[in-house]
Amino acid sequence: MTAKDAGRIGAARALRPSSKLLPEYTRAHNRSLVLQLLYREGPMSRADIARSTDLTRVTVSDLVAELIEDRFVVEQGLRDESRPGKRATMINIDREGHQMVAVDLSDDDVFRAAVVNLGGEFIETCEIPIDGATGDDALAKALAVVDDARGRATAPLLGVGVGTPGVVDDLGIVRVAVSLGWTDVNLRAAIAERTGLPVTVMNDVNVAVLAEHSFADVDSDDIMLVRIGHGVGAGVIVGGATYRGSRFWDGEIGHVTVGTSGGPMCRCGRSACLEAWVGVPRLAAELERITGEAERSAFLREAGEHLGIALAPIVRTLDLTDIVLSGPPRLLGGDFLAAAHDTLLERTMIGDPDDLSLRMTTLGRDNVLFGAVVLVLTGQLGVS
User: What's the rounded Cα separation, in Å, for the pair 61 and 55?
Assistant: First the structure.
């Protein structure tokens, strides 16, 4: 799969300012400014870059020469134009100059990784079965899938981006990941020591919403992605920046109680948690039991309504207009999606349905891998 399949990375919006930087900022910031522009706009001449960034032509020329030497940009020949005068040489991202390792530890059955070039194209993918591993065994498998991907690289590696389940702090320490049996596991340090590369680790749902912002066809800087599997989590971007709570429990909405009159039992021991209403195991089991189409539709609509009830206060509080669901389309599309949308409209008092988008992700199973690419590009090059 390539980034083209999910929205060209060159068209991604920035997660940071893209205007001229003040003199006291370093040369590295100006490098990021040039790279961000090329990612967003595609091939440009040096003069185009200077005009768009308000940097001087001398500064741009020096930066481009440095970026060419470092194999981050490349000259692509002369501009195809009919106007008189000397044709400009076009500059673009050197998609083959470096590669990245993107890692997804969120699947229930396998750990996945991909080698990705600077154009967002998946060069190689690999996976390792989890086989119920937890604790140190799960960590060993995570390191093994990174090793596998790293061994498949064919260009210098820029870094490693990782999306993992659990509560993850800003240092890349997984404070708790129940499904993997991890408590205070310094995943970033473990991978960095193993690879010698820069590593960024973030909660899988926060990583997935980065992918939605950068790769999907989204016309908003205010997005919430809700990932539904065995559990339920949410990632939010507001004003182009990922929202993070001070204790890193942001988005952990699976055990929020929905309703006041009881409900299905949750694996946590309480009843009526959002996870118990809409988690994939419950939806799949109930649909297996129900045979009539009308009954199946009614069940999915009820589940969708409970999701809408849970999301409505978040949507209205943050004034969100774009909500994305990630999970099995066969369960979450159709009646479930329609009922969740209707409930959101009703409970947030948004009169025009066009003012609130609730849709399935277009990135499918790879959204965490795409988001891990964004982690590396942002962390190492200052672009998204």
Answer: 10
With contact defined as beta carbons under 8 Å apart, do 376 and 160 qualify?
yes
Q: Which neighbouring-strand residues pair with 237?
A: 223, 242
For residue 72, give both structure tokens.
């981050």
Token output for 383: 């672009």
Q: What is the model's pTM?
A: 0.88
- Helix, strand, coil shares, percent, the chain, to 5: 45, 25, 35
d(CA 310, CA 329): 20
Q: Comparing C-alpha atoms, which of 62, 72, 80, 90 is closest to residue 36? A: 72
Structure-block tokens of residue 30: 């100006």
Reported as a single tens digit per residue, the pLDDT across 37-69 is 999 899 999 999 999 998 999 999 999 999 999
Could you tell me how far CA 265 lies from the centroid of its own chain?
31
Distance CA 331, CA 11 (A): 31
The pair of structure tokens assigned to 173 is 């320490």
Q: Which residue has the tokens 């989590």?
A: 233
Contact 94, 73 (CB under 8 A): yes
Which single residue is written with the structure tokens 């920046």?
A: 241
Asked whether the beta carbons of 139 and 152 are under 8 A apart, the reply is no
Q: Which residues contact 111 (CB under 8 A, 6 or more apart)?
A: 103, 104, 105, 127, 128, 130, 141, 142, 144, 145
CA atoms in the 13 A half-sphere facing the CB of 147: 10
